[in-house]
Design brief:
This protein has one domain. It is mainly α. It is globular. It contains four helices and no strands. Helices cover 69% and strands 0% of the residues.
Length: 61
């Protein structure tokens, strides 16, 4: 669920995978929205890209 929520601000703000990773590192509001605690690692750009590609392959748009 956290990765899915990570894709929402990416889509809303037109961010690249790298920009999304940076936003989670820089903005507490992004992490709170996705349910990522400050003590947790944020999803990296590769993880975000792989998750999004998996959703697309399964028919999610």
């Amino acid at each position: 669920m956290k990765l899915f929520k990570a894709l929402l601000p990416q889509s809303r703000y037109g961010l690249s995978d790298q920009e999304t990773e940076n936003a989670f590192l820089d903005r507490i509001s992004f992490s709170r929205f996705a349910g990522i605690a400050l003590s947790e690692d944020v999803p990296g750009r590769t993880t975000i890209r792989r998750f999004r590609n998996t959703l697309v392959e399964k028919g999610w748009r």
